[in-house]
# Entry
Amino acid sequence: MLFHTWPFLVFLAIVLPVFFALRRTRLWLPWLTLASYFFYGWWNPYYLLLVMYSTLLDFGLVALMDHCPRAGQKVDVRGRLTGLRFDDRVLKAAFLGAGLAALGVLALAGAGPKTLRPSAVGFGAILALMALGALYSSRRIWLLISLVNNLALLLFFKYARFAVENLNALGAWVHVPLKLADPSTLMPFGFQYLLPVGISFFTFQSLSYTIDFYLGKVYRERNFLRFATFVCFFPQLMAGPIERARHLLPQFNQFPPIRLQNFTDGASLFLVGLFKKLALANYLSFYVERVYDNPQAQGAPALLLATFAFGWQIFFDFSGYTDMARGVAKLMGFNLILNFNNPYLATGLGEFWSRWHISLSSWFRDYVYIPLGGNRGGKFSTYRNLFLTFFISGIWHGAAWTFMIWGALHGLGVLVTRELERSAVYRDRVPKQLKQAGVFLFVSFTWIFFRAGTLTDALLIVRRIFSAAWQNPEIPGLMVVLVALVWAYELLYESRLRSWLATGFARVGLAVLMIVYLCLCSSGGGAFIYFQF
Amino acid sequence: MQPSSQTPTAVPAPQPGSTGTTTSPEIPFGVNEVRLDARQWLIAFGLLALIVALTPTIWERLERFDTGADYRIPYPLSNDYWLYGRRLRQVTDARQVVLLGDSVVWGEYVAPDGTLSHFLNQETGGGSRFINGGVNGLFPLAEQGLFHYYGGALRNRQVILQCNVLWQTSPKVDLSAAKEDQFNHSRLVPQFFPQIPCYRAEASERLSALAQRQIGFLAWVVHLQQAYFGQKSILGWTLEDDGGTPAHYPRSWKNPLAQITLAVPSAPRDDPQRGPASPRHKPWSEDHTPTRFEWVDLDASLQWQAFRLVVEDLRARGNDVLVVLGPFNEHMLVEDNRPAYRKVRDGIVAWLEQNRVPHLAPDTLPSALYADASHPLTQGYALLAQRLYADPGFKAWLEKGKDPQLDRSK
# Structure
């Protein structure tokens, strides 16, 4: 269900009144969970099971982790194995339950229907690890299970086909008869092998909870529904922002206060998001698609402009989604974090990443960069860690070489700009506008790899930008004007003239203009780009 | 482990007040000033309400809309339902009779001066008493939506409604077939109930159609697109190619606003697709063989159900409805297909009689005067008009219209 479609409006028209009507009861939370599951199931009801499974497992793992001592403790493994002498009844039950279930599931994998074998082996392994976690009373094993489970889901649904194809190609290249089966053959009962919408978002969100609990940064959530709502909260389920447990979970402790400002702010955010998506992103997408689908036939100006246009398209698309998500959450009284902060006004690449997809940047900072060592080990290891973080971030975006190159380019770019920013000449003498232009140009260049269908296309586009003839790019003038207006607005917003934009006249006028423009010019349809991640 | 001490500039800690630090109790609203308070929203809604309510009305006064005696909605504007409503609103003389129906009334193969309304006007001595209210591509399920939502002006007047049995000739045209199908005027058909099995539009499209019916402003926007932007959205228009190889985009730098000429485009004076000079304007019998239709039983026909609702809706609004059954090309039928046809036809007549709906069922026209199963050629329309006018029942019905005091709903 897309925010900018009529079914969502109907969905919201049912969900919101019931939510508020239930405010004095304990049913508002189950209602929110139900609504969120319905929202996800609208896309594909079967894959809802995946969300539920992931939620249930992480909830259980943290509960079990809570029964394990924080400090290292010697465990009588032999006594536990031979006499079932556990200090904790829950762990004993977990050991017995998981152990027996693992045996049962693995037996099913061996003797049961063929279609169930791959998933039964995977699930059996998870259960066996759980039995091991209970046996050793090890918080680290519970964390490991959560990591393995979430990453395995992500790897299987997102990267398995890419890996299989490349391994098979590599085998053929080195004359090794390698023929790995397509991952779709591993699906139980022949279910369709799809990339579950938003998988990278809800797995990361769920994973952050288990990691944070392991690190002692969040409390254990004892209410399953509250945790389930945290994982699948419908406004941000499909494409973020990736919330942290310590920020969002407490908001589900009690019914949020009903304030008029929540409605007005929520509606304002939603309107801006809707405008970004329908009036800007979708419009730009037509031009980008026309040029990028046939780069061979395009002149240099068209390729250049389409690349810039894509930069704006993805910004409007993704930040538009985030605005709408935050707006819908705000209508209910919940606060989601800010995910975009005028990124194209950044004066450095590091700053760009503190303004672009902030929730993902901070996720990678906290759960990849810092665990890798952060900046603790000197210049070389800092740069290595930075590069790796960006490279992994590239892979997170998709299973293709182009995304890896995109991530690597950003990694390299960050290293270079970081060094540049250390020099006084660059820091103090280079005008801000030049730095902004530099960042925009570099980011736009990397978008080529992000957007191109294949690596060959990306390289062709780069080559043709510098070598193809200069012919009429045939970009609609209206498109250029619209982007220029938005850019001007952003510049004004960050200037001393911001107060002009804050007048009632400007606010009302802009809101009315946006709504009328949406009615007159919206180009309809189009899913959000980030749904594929 | 303190993130701030670990963080280089490349993956920096969220900046105070600008990024979503998860521990901060205060989340910034956003990075724009489009943040309206309740009073400002009220003002905005007030302004929007004014714009939505007044724009179509003002536009109707500003935009030139030339219609003559034989005017019919031009083929390219068939989906401009707002214009259709406007056309009906123009018919202010209570003695004028509006002919409603599908492309048979509209005149698929004929020029505007070869339609039924034209020849009926001729029969009554010229003038423009009969108005062509047909729409190309229409059918009863769509008529239901068109007349109900856009035909508000159809009130307390004389109306001739054409009943075309073509819509019962197969489950496909009846839209009762289960196989998914694309058809004209899908935005006019019932979107949810009764369910149309072959109509598989997304919920979004269906709800959008419902919204367009209810909000006149949205229908007016479609009018702009239909009349000035080649049936495209304004943005789509700027992106349209010239169809060449390689394609070029001549409208890239054109000002879309300059397209709005404030005059409804009229049909081309000489339409190569229609009229006696057109290659399409030829008798069906030249290259067609008799056909066996898969007649749909009236009880199961979605189109028939819709037609009955159309009659009831029109009558409920005080209109005096005269139903003209046909003219169906019976020559087309193979012999053993005739009983099924007659059963459908008799069923229709029986319902009309039962409900005291004035109706006429003129004899089938000579074979050479049909272009296909239901569309007459120019001479066919002329003959049909003569036959209708010669019918005493028709004349009596027409006479009622001359006295506006008569109760038309009876």
In short: Chain B is about 35% helix and 5% strand. Chain B touches chain A through 62 residues (CB under 8 Å). The domain at 69-199+265-402 of chain B is CATH 3.40.50.1110 (Rossmann fold). Confidence is low (pLDDT under 50) at residues 1-24, 406-410 of chain B.
